[in-house]
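[Automated response] Your request has been received and processed.

Submitted sequence:
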Amino acid sequence: MSEIEKRLQKIQDQIRISATQVGRDPSEIKIIAVTKTVSVQQIRDAQLAGVKEIGENRVQETLDKYQTLGRSLKWHLIGHLQTNKVKKALTVFDLIHSVDSLNLAQEIQKEAEKLKKTVPILVQVNTSEEESKFGLHPDQVKPLVSQMADLRNLKIQGLMTMGPMTQNPDQSRQCFRRLKELSERLKSLPNDNVEMKFLSMGMSGDYPIAIEEGANLLRIGTALFGERLQG
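Generated structure:
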């Protein structure tokens, strides 16, 4: 068994434990393998181990990998998206996790309309309210989602957040719970373009807590690939 297979099995075991503790079905929780700075060969090794979906932070790095890997995987954009990169992003990504302004949503709409496609997105929320992070303030989410919902080439499928930079599990739990509560409130919006299907939250250091609070998309890098160079 390869090192990646061992790590993936360990993560899957923890998912089962955390989900079972709160009465959830582990099969509804997906691992998005975070492949920033990870080589194509490592990604292929992860595929052999059973990884089917990967998350990238940067459009250009993704395009380089996509040339080799193509549609053998499902591609998630989990990093900040600049408006000038939207056109290229729409040629690759199956789900964009990081929409955090009406301006960005409108740019995605404009390019999606040209391509005659519907683009699934998640709205990024800064539930920890840390100045260093992207994402909407929680109070902005409902009014902005209402506006985004009128963009007919977008499909709002849920919310995303990043846990706080802390070792305190209670603080992480509070941020994840806040996202879940926001998601529940948005379900009442009278718009068929809003479907609170996904909660993208939880990374290598806090995903068990995120599962307990309702996460179904986990963005896991270090726990799967080990420590790596930051770039």
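Summary generated for your ticket: The mean pLDDT is 95. The radius of gyration is 17 Å.
If you did not submit this request, please reply to this message.
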